[in-house]
């Protein structure tokens, strides 16, 4: 199977199928969704960290000379800081547009402000939904580029990377669905918009194939950026949510599903390696 076909196939798995899985998840009763989602987050945490530390980073270092390793390590640090800044800007934008402005009003203006705030609330929620779609499209495009770069380095690494992407995309897509539904979108429209946004994963992968194919010297840096993305998502976004519950039963379940995510990536690495051999 050609590299381009593999990229198209696995970017579709990482994008479109994750949206479909999230859509099926939304058909579950609310209580079941609340019970299952934390397990998905734990599983994604293990898959992302294993994909980064046992897949992307080792392959990146294998592709460079010893003299370039410090720069490659610095790329991981820069990537983590960059993702922190980008997320900070997104949080600031949301705060500035909504709650922070409301809290900044003087108390004697609150009554006068209430009517205007309620009048624009629906439009604000709709804008938030569109912002989520735009942000998801960009995020999926970057995921596609990173999956494409991984396949150009090693098909085995590409498979592992696409699986790690899918593992964290499903819980994220569920969250995106929830935001879109809260913003006034119907389930059908939310599914269509998320499906369209997921197509950018395939676009990113195909563009990476044609634009990075002759630039193998920069592929290790894309791999380390992908690793820093996985590490940041797991450590900054997913793990803090797991700490919200500290009872023994929940903690053991979290550890179990994290280890399941680790095991999946390691097993898929082994299978892909044997298949390649």
UniProtKB/TrEMBL annotation:
Which subcellular locations apply to this protein? Membrane
Its topology with respect to the membrane? Multi-pass membrane protein
Molecular function per GO: metal ion transmembrane transporter activity
* Gene Ontology CC terms, in alphabetical order: membrane
Q: Which residues cross the membrane?
A: 6-28, 40-61, 67-86, 191-212, 218-239, 251-272
Region of interest (Disordered), residue spans: 103-122
* Keyword presence, Transmembrane: yes
UniProt keywords, alphabetically:
Membrane, Transmembrane, Transmembrane helix
InterPro entries xrefs: ZIP
Main location, first listed in the record: membrane
User: Is Ubl conjugation among the key words of this record?
Assistant: no
Q: What is this protein called?
A: ZIP zinc transporter
């Amino acid at each position: 199977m050609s590299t381009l076909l593999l990229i198209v196939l696995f970017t579709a798995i990482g994008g479109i199928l994750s949206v479909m899985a999230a859509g099926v998840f939304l058909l579950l009763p609310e209580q079941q969704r609340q019970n299952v989602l934390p397990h998905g987050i734990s599983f994604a945490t293990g898959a992302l960290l294993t994909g980064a530390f046992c897949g992307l980073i080792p392959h990146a270092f294998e592709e460079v000379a010893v003299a370039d390793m410090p720069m490659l390590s610095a790329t991981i640090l820069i990537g983590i800081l960059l993702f922190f800044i980008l997320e900070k800007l997104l949080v600031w934008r949301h705060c500035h547009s909504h709650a922070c402005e409301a809290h900044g009003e003087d108390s004697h203006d609150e009554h006068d402000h209430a009517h205007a705030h309620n009048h624009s609330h629906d439009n604000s929620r709709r804008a938030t939904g569109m912002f989520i779609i735009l942000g998801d499209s960009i995020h999926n495009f970057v995921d596609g580029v990173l999956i494409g770069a991984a396949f150009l380095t090693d098909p085995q690494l590409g498979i592992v990377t696409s699986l790690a992407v899918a593992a964290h995309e499903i819980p994220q897509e569920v969250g995106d669905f929830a935001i879109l539904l809260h913003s006034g979108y119907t389930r059908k429209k939310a599914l269509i918009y998320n499906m369209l946004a997921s197509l950018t994963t395939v676009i990113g992968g195909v563009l990476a194939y044609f634009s990075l194919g002759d630039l193998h010297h920069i592929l290790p840096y894309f791999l380390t950026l992908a690793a820093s993305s996985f590490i940041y998502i797991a450590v900054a976004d997913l793990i803090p949510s797991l700490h919200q519950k500290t009872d023994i039963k929940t903690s053991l379940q979290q550890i179990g599903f994290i280890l399941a995510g680790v095991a999946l990536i390691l097993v898929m690495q082994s299978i892909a390696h044997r298949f390649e051999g």
